[in-house]
Amino acid sequence: MKFFIDTANFDEITEAHSWGIISGVTTNPSLVAKEENISFHDRLREIAELVDGSVSGEVISLDAEGMIKEGLELANIAPNITVKLPMTPEGLKACKYFSEKGIKTNVTLIFSANQALMAARAGATYVSPFIGRLDDIGQSGSELISTIADIFAIHDIQTEIIAASIRHPQHITDAALAGADIATTPFKVLKQLFHHPLTDKGIEAFLADWKKREGQ
Ligand code: E4P
User: Where are the catalytic residues (predicted)?
Assistant: First the structure.
């Protein structure tokens, strides 16, 4: 499973990218709305220059024609831009259009296996099941990932599964075990993944022993 980072904040992306683990970035309108003093297109351009991988920018139109117009503008920003589209009939029409043009797509707001299958058949490069939001309503996000992964394997579907709406480190392990290709992870959760009390304790002990040696 690969890591994408789920943010539109350039400092967070720069920091996580420096760790060498980031293969792509996802944004959504809520994440972009948090960023001040920069246009959406300029921010996507900055990110796409820094990260050598898929950078998802989401459309806000509700009709296929509007999504196609917005998506073409986004795709013109850089070759690694992925057009993020909602899981609706209009979204899938736009998905089919972009797939025929060779433009990458990420169909978002996936909450069922049938939605994922339909998006894949419309030519989606990626589908994004939201596991945290499913857990929030008492359904199992990781079970959904596992079901989609099984269906894609049975039918030899190449669409990649992005586990989205990640809330905590256990979601990462669950998504990896369930067969997600990618987990798009908030910066806060990426930082949490480093921590283990025995790692911190081990570093302290090594340094303390080294200091003792220096004192000899
Ligand atoms: C993914 O593409 C979405 O932008 C994101 O993961 C949604 O997460 P949330 O449920 O925390 O808003």
Answer: 84 (schiff-base intermediate with substrate)
Number of domains in the chain: 1
Spatial distance between the Cα atoms of 95 and 122, rounded to a whole number of angstroms? 6
Q: Cα(99) to centroid of ligand 1, in Å?
A: 23
Residue 164 Cα: closest atom of ligand 1: 6
pTM of the predicted protein model: 0.96
Per annotation, catalytic residue among 2, 34, 69, 84 = 84
CATH at residue 195: 3.20.20.70
**Six-digit token pair at 112?**
């069922």
Q: Which domain holds residue 173?
A: 2-215
pLDDT by 10s per residue, the chain, length 216 = 999 999 999 999 999 999 999 999 999 999 999 999 899 999 999 999 999 999 999 999 999 999 999 999 999 999 999 999 999 999 999 999 999 999 999 999 999 999 999 999 999 999 999 999 999 999 999 999 999 999 999 999 999 999 999 999 999 999 999 999 999 999 999 999 999 999 999 999 999 999 998 776
3-state helix, strand, coil in the chain (%, to 5): 55, 20, 25
